[in-house]
Amino acid sequence: MESQTEAIKMDIGPSPSFLMERKVHIQISGRQIIKTKLRKSCSCTTKRLKNIVMNFFPVLQWLPKYHCREYIWGDIMSGVVIGIILVPQAIAYSLLAGLKPIYSLYTSFFANIIYFLMGTSRHVSVGIFSLLSLMVGQVVDRELLLAGFDLNDDDDAISNSYEWNGNNSNCGKECYAIGVATALTFLAGVYQVLMGVFRLGFVSIYLSESVLDGFATGASLTILTAQVKYLIGIKIPRSQGHGIFLTTWINIFQNISQANLCDVITSVVCIVVLVAAKELGDRYKHKLKIPLPTELVVIVVATLVSHYGKLNEVYSSSVSGAIPTGFIPPQLPNFNMMHRVALDAVPLAIVGFAFTISLSEMFAKKYAYTVRANQEMFAIGFCNIIPSFFHCFATSAALAKTLVKSSTGCQTQVSSVISAVVVLLVLLFLAPLFYSLQKCVLACIIIVSLRGALRKFRDVPQRYHMNKVDTLVWCVTVFSSALISTEMGLLIGVLFSMLCIVVRTQRPRTALLGQIQSTAFYEDDWEYESLCPVPNAKIFRFEAPLYYANKDFFLKSLYRMTGLDPTLEAAKRKKNEKKQKEGNRGTIVKGLDQADTALHLVPNQVDFQTIIIDCSSVTFLDTAGIITLKEILNDYTELKIAVLLACCNPSVIDSLKRAGYFGKDCKKMHELLFYSIHGAVQFARGRKLLADGSRQSREKDGRREA
């Protein structure tokens, strides 16, 4: 690549003060880059193998440097607290996933162990997440219906056979459900690992904060709706497809007369206790070293009351049922099912890694360390792939548990091992004790855990005041997630967010600039007072890239704000010239000589001779944008009006040079391109003086001839 020299006007004088010389960049062919990367990645040395293993298992890097005396107590404290929180949440979220509680406990155990080995964040808590549990549950319910199972039959005994042979008659409802969940989870993990392999983490940038918040809030409304039937103890058909939110509420009101009084009273008491404890915990969190284990206390007390009060036998209150101890033998996910859930795994994978990466980066920034986004995708991917062999379903990082983890002294992922040990104790010894736990208590825990997401509605006025477009994106995502479906809500939110970006670049702000008095700076004369107009020049600013979608808006704005459409003006002048020629041939205007006739027929001159386009906000040009600028240059040049470009970035300059905008060998570059607006104004003033001088000399010559 040869050295390029560009003559760009500076602020003073009509001649260039210096030449700006572009740096020489050595261009390497794509084939050479690929060869180099393949040679580097395929080299097999002891050092490289060691680096691969160390990078793939970050625990091997930080665990040998673990400061036991400094970190151990904080990790133990946070691990025990998270473990205590995980147990009731795992049992509760099994309702969302449409699975037995034992599978939620498996999921919590394996996810913590795997992320301890592979994660790069010190504080993120990975495990069951309400949104993913809901998404898994919707797919499980759909497949159960298609397989001919009754979704309302909650009393199926635990199947003794966990072998899947593709025959519904030999596999019960629970076996089929966990087969769907593990197939879905395995595929989601594979997608996440593939994203890491092909470095597709950029996909998460399209999930803006407004989209993620809106999706979480809309899904929370769906979760709340799904739990109401457990709160009041009624049996209603599980809705499928789009519009679950409205259909479920219609069924609730149609069957509300069947509400179980025992469940209603239990729900009211549990919600009051949980909300009061949460509010007290939030108010006095600076005084409390650890959060109150309210959920665990509520579950223990409710289980004792239900057991000794015989609420299931006397009042027909629905209970959790038997939870086995120990581990079920591992088995392969159901590969025959995967083609049916392949599309459902895509949003599951995207939402899982988006929440995990965003939380990892947020806490890394807060505590001043770095995380590797690509490794995080591998970690969360294998947190889904490996547990799918052990009857687990999809996991990701969860904000609430991560906040608790960091606030209770967590230093490293050793705390995840402690949490896994707590869950293991429940799996091995304590699980059967939850037999009499009412489902309405679990529903209360789920609903109260949604407080943070539902409180987002209170922030709408502040959000609207900050940014109206982001608020609109949030609202569209919320209502589409709630009223249509969670997956469609996420898709609609992303598409609508991208549409808003396109619309904002399609119709951006435009302005005419005036000069700040006695300075070399120029600003929008619509927004600021006491700006001085530049004589004989119009300075036009376009605050967006110039491309095919907004080129027409660019032209209309330029013509409207300068008050001159060059195409129409050229047509008028041609028409007047034609009239003038006809007048010279035979038309006599009484009382006027030939000079007066010509003066009468020539249109009024425009009040400017130069248009300066401020390109500081034009980030790129496409072919349509380049053609538009060339047409403007040609059209205005025909009217003897100069078009100057100012503040162009290097990529815009390169695009114009390749298109021949500056003429052959860029000879006109120093007359058309300027480093600053003030440089262009100074050039225009010098050009105007020369034009006036030449006009005056022509007038003197005309008088002498007369």
Automatic annotation (TrEMBL):
> Which InterPro entries does this one have?
S04_transporter_CS (IPR018045), SLC26A/SulP_dom (IPR011547), SLC26A/SulP_fam (IPR001902), STAS_dom (IPR002645), STAS_dom_sf (IPR036513)
**The entry's keywords:** Cell membrane, Glycoprotein, Membrane, Phosphoprotein, Transmembrane, Transmembrane helix, Transport
Q: What is the protein's major site of localization? A: membrane
Localization terms from the record: Apical cell membrane
Which residue ranges does UniProt annotate as crossing the membrane?
A: 71-95, 124-140, 176-198, 210-232, 252-276, 345-364, 376-397, 417-450, 471-499
In the bilayer, the protein is annotated as:
Multi-pass membrane protein
A GO MF term: secondary active sulfate transmembrane transporter activity
GO CC aspect terms = apical plasma membrane
What reactions does this protein catalyze?
oxalate(in) + sulfate(out) = oxalate(out) + sulfate(in); iodide(in) + chloride(out) = iodide(out) + chloride(in); bromide(in) + chloride(out) = bromide(out) + chloride(in); oxalate(out) + 2 chloride(in) = oxalate(in) + 2 chloride(out)
State the Pfam families in the record.
Answer: STAS, Sulfate_transp
PROSITE patterns per record: SLC26A, STAS
Stretches assigned to the STAS domain: 527-684
Q: Determine the domain of life of the protein's source.
A: Eukaryota
The family assignment reads: Belongs to the SLC26A/SulP transporter (TC 2.A.53) family.
NCBIfam families linked to this entry = sulP
Question: Under what name is this protein listed?
Answer: Sulfate transporter
Which species does this protein come from? Answer: Chelydra serpentina (Snapping turtle)
